[in-house]
Amino acid sequence: xxxxxxxxxxxxxxxxxxxxxxxxxxxxxxxxxxxxxxxxxxxxxxxxxxxxxxxxxxxxxxxxxxxxxxxxxxxxxxxxxxxxxxxxxxxxxxxxxxxxxxxxxxxxxxxxxxxxxxxxxxxxxxxxxxxxxxxxxxxxxxxxxxxxxxxxxxxxxxxxxxxxxxxxxxxxxxxxxxxxxxxxxxxxxxxxxxxxxxxxxxxxxxxxxxxxxxxxxxxxxxxxxxxxxxxxxxxxxxxxxxxxxxxxxxxxxxxxxxxxxxxxxxxxxxxxxxxxxxxxxxxxxxxxxxxxxxxxxxxxxxxxxxxxxxxxxxxxxxxxxxxxxxxxxxxxxxxxxxxxxxxxxxxxxxxxxxxxxxxxxxxxxxxxxxxxxxxxxxxxxxxxxxxxxxxxxxxxxxxxxxxxxxxxxxxxxxxxxxxxxxxxxxxxxxxxxxxxxxxxxxxxxxxxxxxx
Length: 452
Prior knowledge:
Blueprint lengths: L5 E2 H8 L3 H13 L4 E2 L4 E3 L2 H14 L2 H26 L14 H6 L3 H17 L3 H18 L2 H17 L3 H18 L2 H18 L2 H17 L3 H17 L3 H18 L2 H18 L2 H18 L2 H17 L3 H18 L2 H17 L3 H18 L2 H17 L3 H18 L3 H13 L7
Antiparallel strand pairs: 1-3, 2-3
Helix pairs in contact: 1-2, 1-4, 4-6, 6-7, 6-8, 7-8, 8-9, 8-10, 9-10, 10-11, 10-12, 11-12, 12-13, 12-14, 13-14, 14-15, 14-16, 15-16, 16-17, 16-18, 17-18, 18-19, 18-20, 19-20, 20-21, 21-22
């Protein structure tokens, strides 16, 4: 294990001295040019000195002394990570241990407890920041460490975390496998909160795949378990996603009820991420109802919060929804800009579902701006993406957009075929957009051309 630099807190933990004592030693070493400051509070040393120090540690320190020193160091990292996570995400503080550390090294070198606790502590930071590659490494190592020592609770936690990353990146079959394993483990251990989280994420999978009835059932079960476990934060999250199911099926009054019920809960808990998500959902709801001014205000408020807390995924989704509102307000160039920014973030984080959404929004904006060829290209890319993820709602949206582009490009036969595909999917989902597509087909070809 190689640290590029270190601070006085790490040095104090490693040597077992107080912060004052070690600060004096670091100053002496700096004046002797044996170490150098890499920033105002951190130090580094040359590779040759590093190698010499490692040799001395191996030859002069006993094995138990090295073990104790590294344990103190890892405890310091665990404490620092937990303190930072609690400050950034206070609402789910109850799910974290009091301390976490460098997971890979800890998992492979007799510190499995540190590895699993680190993964739990860093979950929210990695998730909101879109650091999915790093998250996979950390949660994989936590899973190995938990299995090595037979800690079924930590194993379930790692599986839930991995399942969440899989959902973000469109690996839905893998996600279901991880989450179902976690559900079985939590049922064995009697962990109601863990069961609720696994069920909640399985419900999200159903929502992303367009299985709204199954998603609703899983989310209702998760909400009940969260409530039974006394997890108000988890209960609010489940209710929020039940609102999304209702939104996708046009049950707008129910959607508004869910979101307005949970908004004060998130605000009282200091959960800014939860608050921002509610604002985004309210904005999307208002857009669908034709209230474009209020929709834009809610979306902009959510976007500000997501940017402040560093939630890249939230920023991308807010930008995509703002692009949709821009289009309804006749601001096609602004809509294109918002969707392009959204698409760039989704590409960086590897969020396939998000890319499909942004590409469809971009296609609709291009068409409104009088660029049907680019609209057709964007919707074709969205269609390819949504076929990979089996996101049936965005797939239907891609077909609808392709039909509109084909009509403008004077290919009515192709337009009808695309619209028929969109109608079939929207009808299967129970989505209100089915009526709009049906009207488009009837306008161009007559009611006899409409098939389900």
